[in-house]
Design a protein that fits this description.
Layout (H helix, E strand, L loop, with lengths): L3 E6 L11 H4 L4 H15 L2 E6 L3 H11 L5 E5 L8 H8 L5 E5 L21 E4 L4 H17 L1
Parallel strand pairs: 1-2, 1-3, 3-4, 4-5
Helix pairs in contact: 2-5, 3-4
């Protein structure tokens, strides 16, 4: 099985470190990407790390991952609660999917507590801050190894 893993980030995550640091912390997306790249090296994973404020780009990357990636981690941000299109794209992806949220969406506003993405996710990590990305990579590596 492929050891390629996509890490996809949705709208406004490019503002990490600046936007609502009391919720999302001080780390930037570049900090998270560096940490993911270092861990991917340890886990012998190949990493594709992307962020977009546009739903269609996230969908295109999910389509691109089909047939070539062993797994996918996604922080869909606000699209978590609104995008059936993301769910449909994820349903067409054959490998494991881990949903990541920096904040605990279950402790937030009621509208943030519903996730379309969770309907497809093999695991959900929420409320662990930026460390959630590393947890997702570790879980994906395990799932890829188990399928091996």
């Amino acid at each position: 099985m492929s050891r390629l893993v996509y890490v996809l980030n949705g709208p406004n995550l490019n503002l990490l470190g600046q936007r609502e640091p009391h919720l999302y912390g001080a780390q930037t997306l570049a900090d998270i990407q560096r940490a993911c790249a270092a861990l991917a090296g340890e886990l012998k994973l190949d990493l594709r790390f992307h962020q977009s404020n546009r739903e269609y780009e996230l969908i295109d990357w999910i389509h691109e991952a089909r047939g070539k990636a062993g797994g996918l981690a996604i922080n869909p941000a606000a699209l978590t609660h609104t995008s059936i299109a993301l769910l449909d794209a994820l349903n067409a992806f054959e490998g494991p999917v881990i949903e990541v949220h920096i904040s605990n969406i279950h402790k937030r506003e009621e509208f943030r507590q519903k996730s379309f993405v969770s309907k497809r996710a093999d695991g959900v990590i929420a409320g662990c801050g930026a460390q959630g990305y590393e947890l997702a990579l570790r879980r994906l590596a395990r799932l890829i190894d188990d399928k091996g």
